[in-house]
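Think of the structure tokens as a kind of shorthand, similar to the way a musician reads notation: each symbol stands for something richer, in this case the local conformation of the backbone. In the example below we present two proteins back to back. Begin with the first one, reading the sequence and then the tokens, and try to describe in your own words what changes along the chain.
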Amino acid sequence: MNILLISYFYGEEASGIISERIACELAAQGQSVIVVTSSNYSKKHDVVKVIRVSPVIKESLFVYRVVRKFFYILGCGRYIWHKGWQYQSRKEVRRLIKKQHFDWIYCRSTPFDANMVMVGVDTVIPVLQHFTDPLPPEGAYLPKGASAKWLLRKAEKIVNKASLLSFGNEFMYSYQVSLLNKPIKNFFISYDASSSSELHFLPKPSNEVYTIVYLGNIYGARNPRPLIEAMEYLGGDHLKLVIYSKRPRTGYIQETFVEYKGVEKDVFSVMEKADLLLDLDGDSLNQVYISSKLKDYLLVNRPILSITPQGSPSSMLLSGLKTARVVNNDFKSISAALNAMRNIDYQDVDYYERKKIINMFSPSEVVKEIIKHMTVER
């Protein structure tokens, strides 16, 4: 099949890295893939053609910059940037579908610009719209009100335009249906692809103090304060939290036992330095996410502490594993779990108990499911 993949991020940010994995795996399984993205993608390979679309209207660059500056002053510059990318991407998509045949147009990635591109393009080519996040995001990440209603209208347009829909997990599908208040028939569950299909056994860490590693940003509903208080209670001199983040907020957590580092491309070299891998979800009754980092954590022989509401997708995924613990985001639960986990030698634990979950998120299995549904819908 010839597939046109539209992804706002590609090869960067969590959603764009997953889009890259899926595009490359689609190509590896015999599909022809062209990607339209906003990312300045620099990798060179023959399997996937990547076209970068800029929101800047080249014919009127000066006017665009003046207008953009004006809207930034008003506080809505990002909105203009994203609308510009949608407009330019629609032009590029129209050009591509006139030039060559495509069997499917596949839209994914956050924010939802990629999905909105096809809302404005008329075509007989079937469109697969993937919901990386619910739209609007659940309440912990977005306040209710006019903006939520505006995003819900976007979701309705995306659903109406789709020939086929996919969702990141079952919880997300159920939550989106409850928001739309109507059934969705043509859909399937499409998990985010992890970075590998194999369990990796890394050397035993040789840290002077018990080191907790967290990959990603701490923002919004992700509240680290109970964790920090638990670490202080257990003795900050004997524990260390290392946060690998693209946008470290050094003023957010100022404790001496917390260290910020930049993002490293080789996540396995980072996880090798950990005694414990930390997953921190947002505090919400409607937690519908499985963080992208958790899929990579599962690939290595390191214990996982998942701070997430009971009944969340992550808590259900990790339920029953001896190599992971799930706790609520409160001081008592976290301190008890940390104290127990740092006194257990996890080197001799059977990490093969994760094999079924690893296979579920493997790029090959995720893409097989996508191709299967594309083939049936054709």
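Once you have a description of the first chain, move to the second and do the same.
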Amino acid sequence: MNRTIERGSKRWLVGLGGVAALTMLAGGAAQAQRPEPFTLTGLVFGMDQGDVRPAGRETVQPVQLADGSVVPMLIAQSGRYVIRDRHVGGVVTSGPGAGGRFHMTYGGNVELLSQGGRLHAFIQGDVFEARAQLRSQFGGPCTDLLAPFLTGADAELICTGGTKGVFNGIYVTGTATFTDGVRGHGVAQGWLIPILDPLTGHVAAGFGAFQIDVQ
């Protein structure tokens, strides 16, 4: 009887030891797979208009421009437009794939006059793929992202508000998740200096910069 109990106790201890070992191995594997922090930056050198459609019927409405003048403009009654498949291209300047090119495709629903709205983007570089959820707006904090293009008073004008018909830059912020190549989840921000179609007010082209910090 005692030998039976002793054997059972040994089996129980061996089983417990096996569970503990598996737990330690699983914890070690999880720790080994944890992504290292990194920062990815890039410069935007080109973009197209994409497929832009009004969110509702368009009518001619009076629109006040940045210089205070009011002009008639054909605009959606909701003031909003749906963007699909807008393509952005540029170069990765630091982080994974530095020196290579990247391509981003994004879409969303934005208000024309403020460029404010939610955007969803797919970003692909030489060694990574990522998906981002972003919000956009005219104007924002003057960060170092603008330094390759503008400094001083010129950067301040883009950040804080346009005058005499000059439009603000478009600031975007949100999150990004790397799904292939490198892995991780982080905070994204970027600036786009847009070239607007003078007849429609839509973004026709532009340049800028972005940064994603993964912790």
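Compare your description with these statements about the second chain. The first strand starts at residue 38 and ends at 47.
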